[in-house]
Amino acid sequence: MADHYEVLGVDRTATTDEIKKAYRRLARELHPDVNPGADASERFKLVTHAYDVLSDPQQREQYDLGPQAGFGGGGGNFGGFGDIFETFFGGGQQTRGPRSRRERGQDALVRVEVELDEIIFGTKRDIEVDTAILCETCNGSCCAAGTQPVTCDICRGSGQIQRTVRSLLGNVMTSSPCGTCRGYGTVIPNPCPTCQGQGRVRARRNIPVDIPAGVDTGLRLQLPSQGEVGPAGGSSGDLYLEIKVKHHDVFSRNGDDLLATLEVQMTDAILGTKTTLKTLDGEVSFDIKPGTQSAEVITVKDRGVTRLRGGGRGDLKIGIQVATPTKLSGKEQDLIKQFASSRKPLAPTLTHFQQGLFQKLRDRFLNI
Fold first, then answer.
1. Looking at 55, 70, 86, which one is the last position of a domain?
2. What would the DSSP string read from start to end of 171-218?
3. CB 151, CB 157: distance < 8 Å
């Protein structure tokens, strides 16, 4: 790595104004608009970087000291208060190195809505995700083609800046991440133009997903390594799918059972009948026994939701609602009167108050 003072052509004792004048002179000579040559372009980058370091008092001080600077006093080489105690009590000094640019990507959460009939046997979906993917231009290196990271000339590749601090124990050296390279130990003078030196770009991609049977609202499915790619081509995070089952106008769900209400004519409830209904996975036939009452529940085995764990299916439970006709012809009224007069009258009796049919059905469903 070229010495910054030599690059600018100044002495190490040069003042800030002398450094600024040297930079302006070289910049006018080497600027790409004036000198388009490749050698001039590289020298212009070196001159600019040297000026950025030497024009900042703090960076210049650290550059002049170098990574092996002493304390200016007696004592050992300490790396912060944790290392002080280790040194005094036999632990020894811990050496810190630069951190890696490659990091694991973040996890992602996507909410997926599914229909009630889709969860009976499971379904397949293509999920569109806006996420970070590997930059195909630099393949995660973060550098433009034909270039590579260079060692940071402030921390000399250590990723740490050391400062002398006066304390009760004497002069000690503390370490903090280098502000120039952000603790990586290297800088990227020529970042990839596609990802701007990140090693990854934002993109939309489709992910085929198998949604198993029996899932319910709030359940999260984990897809390992399907989240976003990490910086500098680091490993991918996980993708989580949060399930929401859409409302259905006819059927509702109670665990692995499906619930529905069937309105039955008064005559069918009295005499009994056989009926066929269309369910979420085909037709089902069952008998309505004579004398069926409102709020009774008919159970059709194994026509509910497939169990998420264990196999098999729940049941279809159908609550009966007997419909009382409100408009009768004269002939129908006469027939009902004849029917009523043929039966022994029953005295009205009080029972526990019910909140309508749906309250009755709920109680029946829960007690089955």
1. 55
2. EEEEEEE-TTTTTSSEE-SSB-TTTTTSSEEEEEEEEEEEE-TT--TT
3. yes
Q: Are 205 and 109 in contact (CB under 8 A)?
A: no
What is the reported pLDDT for 1? 56
Q: Are residues 258 and 331 in the same domain?
A: yes
Q: Which domain holds residue 278?
A: 252-345
Name the residue among 161, 192, 187, 190 with its Cα closest to residue 174.
161
Residue 259 neighbours by CB under 8 Å, 6+ apart: 251, 252, 253, 317, 318, 319, 365
Specify if 162 maps to a domain.
no
Give yes or no for residue 193 having a pLDDT over 70: yes
196 plus 133 within the same structural domain: yes
Query: Which residues share a beta bridge with 230?
Result: 234
- How many Å apart are CA 243 and CA 220, to the nearest integer? 6
**pLDDT for res 353:** 52
Q: What is the pLDDT of residues 120-152, one digit of tens each?
A: 999 999 999 999 999 999 999 999 999 999 999
Report how far apart, in Å, the C-alpha atoms of 95 and of each of 66, 80, 92, 158, 352 are: 17, 11, 10, 10, 79
Same-domain pairing of 228 and 319: no
Residue 317 belongs to a domain = yes
Q: What is the pLDDT of residues 75-101, one digit of tens each?
A: 333 333 444 333 333 333 344 678 899
Buried b vs exposed e over 5-26: b needs ≥16 C-beta within 10 Å?
A: bebbebeeebeeeebeebbeeb
* 365 in a structural domain: no
Q: Are residues 233 and 269 in the same domain?
A: no
d(CA 329, CA 339): 15
Instruction: Classify strands 239-245 and 186-187 as parallel, antiparallel or unpaired.
Output: unpaired
CATH of the domain at 314: 2.60.260.20
Residues across the chain: 368
Domain membership flag for residue 283 = yes
Number of domains in the chain: 3
